[in-house]
Amino acid sequence: xxxxxxxxxxxxxxxxxxxxxxxxxxxxxxxxxxxxxxxxxxxxxxxxxxxxxxxxxxxxxxxxxxxxxxxxxxxxxxxxxxxxxxxxxxxxxxxxxxxxxxxxxxxxxxxxxxxxxxxxxxxxxxxxxxxxxxxxxxxxxxxxxxxxxxxxxxxxxxxxxxxxxxxxxxxxxxxxxxxxxxxxxxxxxxxxxxxxxxxxxxxxxxxxxxxxxxxxxxxxxxxxxxxxxxxxxxxxxxxxxxxxxxxxxxxxxxxxxxxxxxxxxxxxxxxxxxxxxxxxxxxxxxxxxxx
Length: 291
What we know:
Largest sheet: 8 strands, mixed
Helix content: 25-40%
Domain AB hydrolase-1: 32-274
Organism: Aestuariispira insulae
Strand order of the largest sheet: 1-2-4-3-5-6-9-10
Strand content: 15-25%
Shape: globular
CATH superfamily: Alpha/Beta hydrolase fold, catalytic domain
Order of helices and strands: EEEHEHEHEHHHEEHHEHEH
CATH class: Alpha Beta
Protein name: Pimeloyl-ACP methyl ester carboxylesterase
Number of strands: 10
Structural class: alpha/beta
GO cellular component, one term: membrane
Number of domains: 1
Number of helices: 10
CATH architecture: 3-Layer(aba) Sandwich
Pfam families: Abhydrolase_6
């Protein structure tokens, strides 16, 4: 049985974008739109998507422009949230998705808040993974630092070693999980060398450090929907103080701390699985019901 289907579409500026679908749309049921972190791609959600697909959900997982199998942009200024939101809106229109559960990790969560302001009626519920309306500067500097690197690896073993040094906060213990993360982060190129699976130029707009919009106002745009929010217990992006304020600021939010994990939880931890299953229970149909 095919695990997922693969698709390409063109954004309004002609950029070719890639997305995966797990399962098929279900009448009168919201689909789950998965949005990854800043330099991440659809591969990150594979394990989570397979599990949720087995519970009867339909999932759409996008590669942002400049990541994974989507086109890179000749103009780095197009690597910005406004363009990403336009791409997402175009995808939702293309797939005729009028109701979604937004599952957003890091940047994906910020874009989910943006959808709350731009397309409030499309959101049925929102899941935020280690992101909030305040971003800790030290964590952002760390991210800019590793995105600015352009390493080249001669073997997957050397790539795994590098990823371990870049993401020590992930908290993986099994070697197979580190290999999985490395294969999600890198690709083997035509010359046989292994490089990051994103355009290094995605970091260029971040170096400008332009003033951010009022992220708390964007977070408040989610007040009409249930929210599940995860925080890695040692996150250097989402602080305990911001997490607590988010809890106070929303009357229908569930906040879950995943211990001994930094930025970001994989959503495969026991605490994450339990919280996801409970949160999604009202939207779930059994796999048998759609066969």
